[in-house]
Write a structure and sequence with these properties.
two-stranded antiparallel ribbon; mainly alpha; Transmembrane protein 19; DUF92_TMEM19; transmembrane; membrane; 5 strands; globular; transmembrane helix
């Protein structure tokens, strides 16, 4: 009887908490809407943002972040950082939001997959891959900055990628997709390669065989996985464009964004491996039989120098892909007739 009463009270508290969260987000969305109305009337050229967009941009990232925190995909600092990243990307463009979700959800699931095998190879393996704020910002910081620039350029809303009509905004869209695809490609390669690959990794700079877990080591399975990870981000962006942009038929073809995502995922993974091979220390520790990222008396150096850690390498890779790849896509993007 006491147990039933305790469960009933627990369900009641959960229901009341959900109601309070919903009421607070409704109040916030209405408050932000009123503020946007005042600002738009003052400046004249700005369009007020719908209260429903405010509500969606606050509520959905909040629900997803709370779920990730409960499943231990994020720690508390990571949850706060993810909430900020999710809010900015959702407010800016729903295609940004769907691309972010494609990266985060698939990466979180793949991180948990094959944990027993990864634990044997990775000395720093964490159950569930719980990410902190540094890891969130190293993967989501560049997309967040691009989303803010996008809102300054065209305001919140969905537009087709069309260099002829919206040059700067289209560039920002491709840069953002490239950064997320780069992060997805690297994560997919790191999580899928060690589990499925039947061959030893090869160092990307010398092509010599190295132990699994070596920074800069690549496998064919890992490279294919990175291509698929980037492709997933591109598909999410493209499908959302189809669902949300009303005048898509008047713009340039949008399907190349899927190919672009795949190329960004593959290229980003290779850039990450190249930087890792040079700027991350990898050594084999005989005492534990695993590759480690620090020197010790029992460690034999494999490659790299202790200049950057994994988070910094991820950040530099996404920055390089975001800056360089849109310029190549601009010249190859098909034009509407």
């Amino acid at each position: 009887m006491e147990c039933d009463r305790h469960l009933l009270m627990k369900e009641y508290v959960k229901m009341m908490t959900d109601m309070i969260v919903l009421c607070v987000t409704l109040a916030l969305s209405l408050f932000f809407w009123v503020v946007s109305l005042v600002i738009s009337s003052y400046y004249g050229s700005l369009q007020p943002v719908s209260p429903w967009r405010w509500l969606f941009s606050i509520l959905i990232p909040l629900v997803l972040t709370a779920r990730a925190l409960k499943r231990r995909s994020l720690d508390r600092t990571g949850a706060l950082a993810a909430l900020l990243v999710g809010f900015v990307l959702t407010m800016a463009n729903l295609s940004f939001f769907s691309s972010l979700m494609a990266f985060f959800i698939t990466s979180s699931k793949l991180t948990r997959w094959g944990g027993a095998k990864k634990r044997k190879m990775d000395a720093e393996y964490k159950e569930g891959g719980q990410r902190n704020w540094v890891q969130v910002f190293c993967n989501g910081g560049v997309p967040t900055e691009l989303a803010l620039l996008y809102m300054i350029e065209v305001g919140p809303g969905e537009i087709p990628v069309d260099f002829g009509k919206q040059y700067s905004a289209s560039w920002m869209c491709l840069s953002l997709v490239g950064a997320l695809a780069c992060s997805a490609g690297d994560t997919w390669a790191a999580e899928v390669g060690p589990v499925l690959s039947q061959s030893q990794p090869r160092l990307i700079t010398t092509w010599k065989e190295v132990p699994a877990g070596t920074n800069g080591g690549v496998t064919l399975v890992g490279l294919i996985a990175s291509l698929l990870g980037g492709l997933t981000v591109g598909v999410a962006f493209f499908v959302t464009q189809l669902l949300t942009v009303s005048d898509l038929h008047m713009a340039n073809p949008q399907w190349p964004i899927m190919v672009y995502g795949g190329v960004a995922g593959l290229l980003g993974s290779m850039v990450d491996s190249f930087l890792g091979a040079h700027m991350q220390y990898s050594g084999f520790d005989a005492s534990i039989g695993k590759v480690v990222s620090h020197e010790s008396a029992t460690t034999r150096r494999i490659c790299g120098k202790a200049i950057l850690d994994n988070n910094a390498v991820n950040l530099f890779s996404s920055v390089l892909v975001a800056l360089l790849l849109p310029g190549l896509a601009w010249g190859l993007w098909p034009q509407s007739e």
